[in-house]
Amino acid sequence: MKIRADIQFLRGIAVLLVVFYHASFSMFKGGYLGVDVFFVISGFLITGLIKKGIEVKVFTFANFYYRRAKRLLPAAYTTFLVTCVMAYFLLTTQELSDFYDSMIGAITFTANMVLWGQGTYFGVESDLKPLLHTWSLSVEEQYYLIVPAIMVFTPRRFWSPTLLVAFLASLVACVVFYNIQNAAAFYLFPARAWELLIGSAGALYYDRVNRDGYIKHFFWPSLIGVLYLSINPFGGMHPGPDALLICLLTLIIILINNQTVFDNFIAKAIIWVGDLSYSLYLIHWPLFAFAANIWISEFDMPFSYRVAIIGISILLAYLQYNFIENRFRYKKSTKETIKFNPILAFSVFLIIIPITLNITSSQSNDPISNNRMGNTGFGQQCTFYDKLEDLADCRTGNKPSILVWGDSNAMHLVPGLAAVKGDKDIMQATKYVCGPMLGISPLGTAVATYQNKNWANSCLDFNRSVFKYLKDNPNVETVILSSFFSQYLEPTGFRIYDGVKTFTELSKQEQMDLAADSFLKTIDNLRAIGKKVVIVAPPPAMSFDAGRCEERKQNQMIRLGEYANCIMPYDDILDLRKDVYAFMDTVQRKSNIEIIKFDEHLIEDNFVITNRDQINIFIANAHLSYKGSVLLAREMNLLQLAIDSAY
Question: The domain spanning residue 512 has which CATH number?
């Protein structure tokens, strides 16, 4: 297929949007939609190639996949190999283990499924994954595996009905997956295929478009619409309405096939970037991810650093495009020279590397890195969804007298409490992000947030089920409440939702008052059914991952940023967490309840201790490690302190 200026221009726009988004340029808050533009282009081009090959009766699966391999694998494998070497020296143990899994996924075209298991694309932890971006390449490769077979073995008169059914089925899958778990809708092929199918529809109907008719007037509105959405996305569900709209606008631009507006410097520069787009997409994100691993701060990297990374990415992309991509892409071959053995051999070689390194690193006895696993208390089975279950694995005895209720800041207390429980039995009742507040739930505002309305309703249901359990079980005498609390206090990141209404117009103070009132009512309700209540505050910590910083420090790995020495000044924490401290002061004053704080046990000379006796106290985002939880619980005799303080 002849290279078209408009498509290369769209590729340039798409990759720049993605790069600017990853560089945290605030203007391009919808830059992630550039991937959706790529999906439409890929669907259009691949379907067009297959359609033409079938029509002239020269299509073969071997030739198709060999051409795809020549086009995609040399640049991808070069990037993966170099990234693997850099990862070995620049990533800490936990991040390295995730990297090895994602590298195997990238090589086997299953990265989207691997990354789905590792969390959400829009989460903070995603910034640390050098091969995070390969999810989209896997979706495209999965499409390339399916579409040729469908078109070859389906009579041409059924192509359109098949496409329509597949499109509608994929849209339904997208909505269903999102309502079950939004990461599934983002990563998985069934929920993303509709975007490529829009491009395929363009290829099937391309010859029927009257380019001299009304459609020619939609070129500039469509292009402006693409740019507008990249600056002002709808937000919320993704892929969602903004993805659908940008895909349709991209299709219109492709169908118009306007080749007359690109004879100017700006257009030619963007087309040049479009030529580099595949290599630029491959290269830029690992550089940003490595920088994120190195950067230890509460703030984004300086603007100059981010611009420098973009410049380096473009330079490396230019070199890879000319000396890797084009060298293999345009190498002439005939049917007789098609050989898949070298490709398979190198693929196996690349898979063996991370497997070998992962086995080696898993045998490490490094006490810091081995202590960085997520602290879920008694285990992942005790991180409930919409209902508390009385599981034997989530309590230490048949009739627990202590119940720990809250979010992940309640989870991280459990190992320590269990270690000092004596003759008391405790039970864990916890749900991620869902604080122990009856009647309200946090509702996330970020794009594709896990904490959507379905999740918020599950939080409300979960807390009701905990209260019902407490009401029905008089053996529980003391309830320990704990939460991060910030999710109820930050209007920019979360709204408050009561099951019917979302409170969208509240000031920060009004939102804090609403959260405090709800928390106080929860305490009153617990006392009304005969329970004693005590609150354990979140530990004093910054938002950066102190555990990762300590591991980098111990292993003398490069660290940059405001807190590169891993030391957390207490004054900085008081400033960062001022809303949480103000909230706790309000609750304590109005309820006369005791709030247990870790502050005095962790502060020396106005700095927070992060490591003691080779025990890493913290993991990510102000959470205690398993060993840190036990260490502090023993030092403070935490369970007895909680029982004595309960009221």
Answer: 3.40.50.1110
Rounded CA separation 516/502 (Å): 17
Structural domain includes residue 169: no
Residues 453/497, Cβ–Cβ less than 8 Å: yes
Q: Number of folded domains in the chain?
A: 2
pLDDT at 637: 95
164: tokens are: 């329509």
This prediction has a pTM of 0.91
Strands 603-604, 568-569: parallel, antiparallel or unpaired by DSSP?
A: unpaired
Q: Are residues 72 and 128 in the same domain?
A: yes
pLDDT digits (tens, 9 = 90+) for 438-449: 999 999 988 878
Q: State the residue range of the domain holding 271.
A: 5-149+196-359
| Distance between CA atoms of residues 77 and 206, nearest Å | 34
* Same structural domain, 145 and 30: yes
Best CA proximity match to 247, nearest among 233, 226, 231: 226
Angle of helix 134-153 versus helix 189-205 axis, rounded to 10:
50
Q: Are residues 353 and 434 in the same domain?
A: no
CB 273, CB 15: distance < 8 Å: yes
The angle formed by the CA atoms of residues 312, 554 and 118, to the nearest 5 degrees, is 60
In angstroms, the CA 161 to CA 310 distance is 44
pLDDT over 80 (residue 365): no
3-state secondary structure of 554: helix
In Å, how far are 291, 527, 531 from 593, measured between CA atoms? 44, 11, 13
Assess whether 546 and 638 both reside in one domain: yes
Pairing of the two strands 532-536 and 441-444: unpaired
Q: Quick check: 75 and 280 in contact, CB under 8 A?
A: no
Q: Please give the backbone phi and psi of residue 51, each rounded to the nearest 5 degrees, phi first.
A: -60, -45
For the chain, what is the radius of gyration of the CA atoms?
Answer: 27
Q: Which DSSP symbol is given to 110?
A: -
